[in-house]
Design goal:
By secondary structure, the chain is of the alpha+beta class. Helices cover 20% and strands 48% of the residues. It has a 5-stranded antiparallel beta sheet, covered by helices on one side. It has a 4-stranded mixed beta sheet with strand order 5-4-6-7. Helix 1 packs parallel to helix 3.
Amino acid sequence: METKKAILKWSISRARDTYGYNVVTLIDCDTGKKYRACGGGYDMTGTVFADWIEDVYQNELRSISDLAQSMAFYDGKDFIGREHLHGGLYGMTTIRNTQAPDKVSLDGACGLDCIIGTCNAIGLSIQKTYDRSKRNPSLYAFYVSKI
């Protein structure tokens, strides 16, 4: 069973236009690729985790694309419309394009628990590790393995 690891880091932006904003970065330990979310007022951890899952497990997500909460339709770059489905996996959208293969998009701002539920639907087991060296323990890493 192959297990993938991703580490989370929190920081404060020092950029000119976003100075003082919270930044969450998820780092894929296999590839070194980084996924970032900046700001606040939404689940930033869920957002970076969803972006990583969407990137690494796109083929598995396509296999359950019929369970998506909504579908977006495109003709090339032109948006045609959206259809909301009842009872689908919250935060999951199937993108249908007449000129490209289907793609699944995950909106992690809906919450980390929703994204973990989607991961369970594609046969992934998620384990969370916490850094207890600080006064307030914080989520530190994800271990993802296929069931």
